[in-house]
Write a structure and sequence with these properties.
The chain is mostly helical and 95 residues long. Helix content is 65%, strand content 0%. It is elongated and about 55 Å long. The termini are far apart.
Length: 95
């Protein structure tokens, strides 16, 4: 194994680290994937894209709505914020 040192803008690195985290990759793993693909295909071979914040919120809202529909269809009533927080706390405590 060898190391590569590159200089990049500090904000660019922070943004890259955030996106890599969203992809479930370290920045080192992301560069390794990129370099292997470039060598294998002899071109810039792919696009990795994260959803925009708006798309992420929309998907979250849609998932919430689907879960709510399932809960209501199974006879579960609406929960208050206090009920929800109690459920979350119990889940985190292994209860």
């Amino acid at each position: 194994m060898t190391s590569i040192t590159i200089r990049v803008d500090e904000q660019l690195k922070r943004n890259f680290d955030v996106l890599c985290d969203q992809f479930g990759l370290s920045n080192s793993a992301a560069f390794n994937l990129f370099m292997k693909a470039v060598v294998r295909e002899r071109r810039i071979p792919f696009e990795i894209k994260a959803d925009s914040e708006i798309e992420t919120r929309q998907k979250g809202w849609e998932a919430f709505q689907r879960m709510r529909e399932v809960a209501l269809a199974s006879g579960a009533g609406d929960m208050s914020l206090e009920d929800i927080n109690t459920e979350i706390a119990a889940s985190r405590n292994g209860q």
